[in-house]
């Protein structure tokens, strides 16, 4: 079940503010069928799925940060999230003196990722949470789950005679914003830029909105997270300047072969669709298990091979960018990667993005962001250049460093790309790419 469920069994407490006291409950949080609140209770010395908390602070936190939870992806770099980002995405920020599970929520645009990491009991924290997990659910499930929970808390407040609370006012305002198309679009863009509601300067918001009209809403959603930080206007200046830079002139004309990778409507993860699209295109092109040579890759993009792999065209911007021309299929590709494996991977990302419906709009950005579109690009490029079946055949069961180096040379990709393919297809443990923590960054 790909749902978010916050189950409540009301049990009034004796102390605290009235709203907090009268929404005390045994609370259990379940994400994608996994219970995230499994805990060891020091007082009862039992393992249980629910924990005594107050629902009011959690409802306030969810309602107050709804736009950022719904639309803001993991930050760049992910290893150094800001205090503002953590307060909006880590459940511990619900506060009010309760020991909350160490949970993190972040959106990729199509799915909500939820991480949970275990905690230890102590004199100050008599409850120790046990779940170490990473689950993802559709954003629609996040909306349904949070809506149902907040409405349950509001009903409890009404039943206990607490009307007109801060939660009532906040939820009414949020509901009106979500129902109004123009307000919804503005709040969504603010969140992707890392701002709380009404905190983004109006001239800056208007500037991004104008850019969206020029490059397409889908492209703007990839650009905005790159500009989140202390100087979003300056970051946007650099990206707009990059869009006018010299690049690789190309033209994609694959005829029927390109039709097979048009993205179907599917609830499946973006990376899964990217793998499928790459396999389909390889079949159409008759590549079988063979590596994609440089000339063949350049030809698919309609580019001169000498220019396509010219390291002098690399830039130091936080993205690679392809800008569509007036003629059908024409592109000016402004790459970021300089070395040959990196450039091949980047070019394959642009190919997959263009052929997918994700490539709508005048700009095709290739970034390090943790959005569904970028996941799709990376998965497509990995499977197109280094397909898992032929990779496994080449390795013949040898997963040692030397064999992985040989495979990287054979398929002309980086060792990291080979390892990622093996991890994503469960041929290597995930720990080879991670630090072992359930969270995407160190707490």
Using brief descriptors, characterize the structure shown:
2 domains, four-stranded antiparallel sheet, 443 residues, 19 helices, globular
Helix/strand layout:
Layout: E1 4-10, H1 18-21, E2 24-31, E3 34-35, E4 39-41, E5 46-48, E6 51-54, H2 55-64, H3 66-71, H4 83-89, E7 102-107, E8 111-117, E9 127-129, E10 133-138, H5 139-159, H6 166-179, H7 181-192, H8 202-215, H9 217-227, H10 232-243, E11 248-251, H11 256-259, H12 270-285, H13 294-300, H14 305-308, E12 319-324, E13 330-334, H15 340-355, E14 363-367, H16 372-385, H17 388-395, H18 401-411, H19 415-424
Antiparallel strand pairs: 1-2, 2-3, 2-6, 4-5, 4-9, 7-8, 8-10, 11-13, 12-13, 12-14
Helix pairs in contact: 2-5, 2-6, 8-9, 9-10, 12-16, 13-15, 15-16, 18-19
What does this structure look like?
This protein has 443 residues and is α+β, with helices and mostly antiparallel strands. It has helices spanning 18-21, 55-64, 66-71, 83-89, 139-159, 166-179, 181-192, 202-215, 217-227, 232-243, 256-259, 270-285, 294-300, 305-308, 340-355, 372-385, 388-395, 401-411, 415-424; strands at 4-10, 24-31, 34-35, 39-41, 46-48, 51-54, 102-107, 111-117, 127-129, 133-138, 248-251, 319-324, 330-334, 363-367. It contains 19 helices and 14 strands. Strands 1, 2, 3 and 6 form a four-stranded antiparallel sheet that branches. A four-stranded antiparallel sheet has the order 11-13-12-14, sandwiched between helices. The protein is globular, with a radius of gyration of 24 Å. The two termini are 29 Å apart.
């Amino acid at each position: 079940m790909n749902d978010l469920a916050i189950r409540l069994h009301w049990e009034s407490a004796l102390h605290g503010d009235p709203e907090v006291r009268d929404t005390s409950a045994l609370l259990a949080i379940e994400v994608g069928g996994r219970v995230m609140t499994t805990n060891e209770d020091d007082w009862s010395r039992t393992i249980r799925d629910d924990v005594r908390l107050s629902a009011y602070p959690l409802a306030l936190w969810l309602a107050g940060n709804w736009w950022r939870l719904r639309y803001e992806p993991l930050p760049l770099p992910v290893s150094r999230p800001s205090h503002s980002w953590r307060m909006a995405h880590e459940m511990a920020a619900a506060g009010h003196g309760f020991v909350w599970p160490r949970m993190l929520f972040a959106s990729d645009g199509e799915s909500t990722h939820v991480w949970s990491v275990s905690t230890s009991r102590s004199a100050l924290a008599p409850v120790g949470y046990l779940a170490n997990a990473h689950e993802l659910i559709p954003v629609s499930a996040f909306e349904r789950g949070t809506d149902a929970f907040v409405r349950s808390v509001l009903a409890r407040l009404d039943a206990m005679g607490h009307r007109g609370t801060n939660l009532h006012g906040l939820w009414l305002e949020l509901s009106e914003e979500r129902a109004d198309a123009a307000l919804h679009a503005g709040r969504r863009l603010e969140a992707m830029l890392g701002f709380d509601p009404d905190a983004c300067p109006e001239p800056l918001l208007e500037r991004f909105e104008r850019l969206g009209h020029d490059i397409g809403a889908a492209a703007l959603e990839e650009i905005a997270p790159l500009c989140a930080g202390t100087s979003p206007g300056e970051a946007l200046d650099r990206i707009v300047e990059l869009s006018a830079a010299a690049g690789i002139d190309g033209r994609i004309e694959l005829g029927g072969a390109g039709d097979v990778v048009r993205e179907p409507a599917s609830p499946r993860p973006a990376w899964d669709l990217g793998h499928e699209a790459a396999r389909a295109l390889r079949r159409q092109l008759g590549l079988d298990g063979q590596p994609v040579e440089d000339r063949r890759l350049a030809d698919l993009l309609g580019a001169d091979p000498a220019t396509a792999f010219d390291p002098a065209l690399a830039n130091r911007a936080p993205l690679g960018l392809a800008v569509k021309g007036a003629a059908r299929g024409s592109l000016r590709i402004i790459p970021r990667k300089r070395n040959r494996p990196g450039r091949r991977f980047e070019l394959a990302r642009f190919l997959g993005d263009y052929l997918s419906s994700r490539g709508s709009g005048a700009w095709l950005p290739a970034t390090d962001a943790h959005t569904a579109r970028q996941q799709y690009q990376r998965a497509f490029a990995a499977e197109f250049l280094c397909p898992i079946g032929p990779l496994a055949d080449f390795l013949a069961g040898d997963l040692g460093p030397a064999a992985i180096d040989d495979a990287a040379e054979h398929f002309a990709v980086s060792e990291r790309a080979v390892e990622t393919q093996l991890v994503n297809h469960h041929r290597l443990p995930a720990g080879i790419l991670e630090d072992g923590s359930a969270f995407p960054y160190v707490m």
